[in-house]
Design goal:
The protein is mostly helical. It is built from 5 helices and no strands. The longest helix is centred in the last third of the chain and has 24 residues. It starts with a helix and ends in a 7-residue tail after the last helix.
Amino acid sequence: MNPDSLMQNPALSGIDPGKLQLLLSLASQAGNKKQNELLPFLMSAAAGAQGKQLSFQPSEIDSIVEVLKIGKSPQEIQQIDRACALMRQFRAAGARGGSRQSGS
């Protein structure tokens, strides 16, 4: 997808341009990764965004994912959906485990 068309897509008009620019940068970097390198890369990127106090609302994520699916094959859409499901599971596990403290 053309970065300019992504930035101008009306479905993404409510998302901060700085967030979209970050996504474009990540997409550019991820394009050079092998499939087995993507999840660690995305996890690292997510941690970096959290460190910068940058987060995406669920509605923003849904809008971005729907735009990314445009023009993709059914197989590619399935891969995107699986990746999203994995990220949701990871976030849920992190939310449950994030408040645990190690005992001595």
